[in-house]
Amino acid sequence: MTLDVDAVKAFVTVADLRSFTRAAEALGSTQGAISVKLKRLEERIGERLIERTPRLVRLSARGAVFLEPARELLAAHDRAVASLTAVRRHFRLGIATHVGGAEVPTLLARLSAHDPALTIEVRLDDSRDLLAAFDRGELDAAIVRREDDRRDGEVLAPEHFGWYATPDFVYRAGEPLRLAASAPSCSIRDIVTGALDAVGIPWTQVFLGCGSFAVAEAVSAGLATAVFSCRLAPPGTIEVSRKFGLPQLPASEILLLSTLSDAQSREALRTLAMAFREHSPTANGARPRFRNSQMADSAI
């Protein structure tokens, strides 16, 4: 059996985005053309791969089985095409430390599999520093939290924040809140301390970490509370804004910024965006679920 690579790519894209419309946009095609390619693929295989209703697009049982082999087929095809040229390209990507989580290795692996001739240089830093580097031309693309009123970039997902601590962390009203935070240049730290000052809650920074991982370790050890993206809260911690009467924090958005314009690079960016949305639980606008259901009303 011989499969049409373009049809397989259409199937994988629809499966990733759960939408014919968004798949058409990602592939630079039309919804009708995507439907025709998928129908031909299903006729070739002899089974339905995608179940489609007016409100829902999802994989069939056979489609779920076929999805990973389909990815492997596309990756092998891309490697074969890439082997025909000796030209290697460089891709300088910045990922904000408070945005990227366990999905980062998957993002990079998907990007590498999509374009084996692409050398990826990754910089992990605070959103503010990455934005400055992007504006200076030091990065080709960046995944960051939206800063201030900046309006450029593609929105990948909404971003919600919460106050997290261990279940046995003790805080009494009127006492300074023991706070763990990253370096003073971190924009989230400014938002956190500003929110506490605005409602008159005294605070003391008992841990100054270099990066979100160090802060997470301090919070997991019960030394302090800290603000995290609800996607990236440390294991074993709970959201405590209602418990301790802490202020709500403004929601934000995760952006993909890029200056790349050539076709190959734009395709790589589409792959990156799809991989991020696939592995982000809030990519479709769903609000985060807190570990303690009684605190769900404190979502920000």
Structure description:
- The protein has ten helices and twelve strands.
- It has 300 residues and is of the alpha/beta class.
- It folds into three domains: 71 residues, Orthogonal Bundle (Arc Repressor Mutant, subunit A); 99 residues, Periplasmic binding protein-like II (D-Maltodextrin-Binding Protein, domain 2, 3-Layer(aba) Sandwich); 99 residues, 3-Layer(aba) Sandwich (D-Maltodextrin-Binding Protein, domain 2).
- Helix 5 packs antiparallel against helix 10.
- The longest helix is centred in the N-terminal third of the chain and has 22 residues.
Under CATH, the topology of the largest domain can be stated as D-Maltodextrin-Binding Protein, domain 2
Please name the CATH architecture of the largest domain: 3-Layer(aba) Sandwich
What is the typical, i.e. mean, pLDDT?
81
Low-confidence stretches: 283-300
Going by CATH, the homologous superfamily of the largest domain would be: Periplasmic binding protein-like II
**Broad shape:** elongated
Task: Work out the count of structural domains.
Answer: 3
Q: How many helical stretches?
A: 10
Number of DSSP-assigned strands:
12
Q: Using only CA atoms, what is the Rg?
A: 22 Å
Describe the structure concisely for a colleague:
This protein has 300 residues and is of the alpha/beta class. Helices cover 40% and strands 21% of the residues.
